[in-house]
Amino acid sequence: MAYQENSAKGQSGGSGYCCTNLVAVATVALTLALGPSLCRAQETVQDPPRLASDRHTDSHIAETIRLVSAEHIRQTIEKLVSFQNRSTISPQDQESIKAGRGIGAARQWIKAEFERYSKDCGGCLEVKTDAFTEHPGDRISKPIEITNVYAVLRWSDPKQADRIVLVTGHYDSRNSDTFDGTDSAPGANDDGSGTAVSLECARVLSQTAGKLKFPATIVFLTVAGEEQGLNGSKHFAAMAKQQGWKIEAVLNNDIVGGNLGPGQDASVVRVFSEGLPAVASDAEIKRIRMLGGESDSNSRELARYIADVGRSYNAGVKPLLIFRLDRFLRGGDHYSFNQQGFAAVRFTEFREDYNHQHQNVRKDDANGIEYGDLPKFVDFDFVAHVARLNAATLASLASAPAPPASVKMLTMNLVNDTTLTWEPSVGASTYEVVWRSTNAADWEYVQTVTSGTRATVQVSKDNVIFGVRAVDAAGHRSLPVVPEPER
Ligand SMILES: [Zn+2]
């Protein structure tokens, strides 16, 4: 069986809640306990299943992520380092490319690598570039050509062709000086590691694309210009928005090398997500404040989805959700996508070593510290684990139906239950209503709606946050959508 359910449904969680499950036509009614006596009064009583114990694993996806190779990732990172300086302002003339020096050579190699993977899967990847001239700015002294390189793994369901999930890393590097395009800037961790994750996801997912048949499209992106001001990702995200791409998720991997310094926790990878959407208008901010929706941006729902994937698959690393756009004094390419309204998160190792990023390669004899972003400080097994988590997330999202559209919560009457309605999703066979307490970080409860696109849950909308997600026949879940109140 391709799809296994490791469910603890029906088990008593001892949570203090009880519920009555009344299924009538398309209506699911759940009663949360208002008190022990009320629970006992109900004829059939069962605890609502907790989401955390309701894991789903697709054996093909589990098999695919096992193909991720730490050795292959090591080769990719060492190859990227061999170009010596991949600064966006490093040389990209034909002579430098031929000599294997600078960002032009790195770009050519990445493109050839995507093409090699495509050849291995019978041409399943479409390899493309997004090139443009960036005008002078804070960190760019003269007009410069910036090229993003990407590969597209096409949909298998024409009805879902325009649904896109995307993984990215930046292949440009820097040393202590953002204007230095010649001295060594190995960028093994920042961001050879993220570039390697995008490439490795392309390699393994293209290998099994025939078996998995993703209904949606997956884009494997590597961008330049990050260190000069997110230039590459800004251009790419704006192009996607302008061309009407329906990007459901962006996974930005930046500094996922698991630096081998003291204090590192290799069992987790941080996943940063914005709370209030960068694109929210004043009116939307007002509505979010009224609804208590400060922690329900599309990026936050994506982060929770990754937590679910982390529970369902043995990637070797667990996502540690950080409810914040990014680290202090730093930024990243996910922000470019957020600014166009796309759900985008950032993966970064638990503890960064600032001696091994944005530094000239050198040794300080006085304190014995070795500076520089060198491959010897990278934990290739850790990068492989992060790549597995990314690949499982991409595969899960691309296998799932489209998220339900027009999700509404009816608020015309003062009642203590909650009715939700939504439009049918392409590829869905059932739907799930999820909810959590307003002060809980992640979804706590889930209830399946076996038919129809309407559910009444006997939980007060005043006390919880709801979401609705679509599920296909094999159990793949879409991103949840938080309802809009409707009067
Ligand atoms: Zn970076």
Structure explained in plain terms:
The chain has helices spanning 36-41, 59-65, 70-81, 94-99, 103-120, 188-207, 209-212, 226-229, 231-242, 282-291, 298-312, 334-338, 380-399, and strands at 3-7, 22-24, 27-29, 54-58, 125-134, 144-153, 163-170, 217-223, 246-253, 268-272, 318-322, 344-349, 362-364, 369-371, 405-410, 418-423, 430-437, 445-449, 454-457, 464-471, 484-486. 51% of the residues are buried. The chain has 13 helices and 21 strands. The strands form 6 sheets. An 8-stranded mixed β-sheet has the order 5-6-8-7-9-12-10-11, sandwiched between helices. The chain has a 4-stranded mixed β-sheet with strand order 19-16-15-21, with no helix packed on it. Helices cover 29% and strands 25% of the residues. It is an alpha/beta fold and 487 residues long. Helix 2 (59-65) runs antiparallel to helix 13, helix 3 (70-81) packs across helix 6 (188-207) and helix 5 packs parallel to helix 6. Mean pLDDT is 89; it is low at 1-47. The longest helix has 20 residues, at 188-207. Bound molecules: zinc ion. The site of zinc ion has 6 residues, from helix 6. Zinc ion is lined by residues 170, 190-191, 226, 254-255.
Q: Sheet bearing the most strands, described?
A: 8 strands, mixed
* Strand order in the sheet with the most strands: 5-6-8-7-9-12-10-11
- Shape type: globular
Number of helices: 13
From the N-terminal CA to the C-terminal CA, the straight-line distance is 45 Å
Catalogue the unreliable spans: 1-47
Strand segment count: 21
- Mean pLDDT equals 89
Classify the secondary structure makeup into a structural class. Answer: alpha/beta
Quaternary organisation:
single chain
Strand content is 15-25%
Question: Bound compounds, please?
Answer: zinc ion
Radius of gyration: 24 Å
Instruction: Report helical residue fraction.
Output: 25-40%
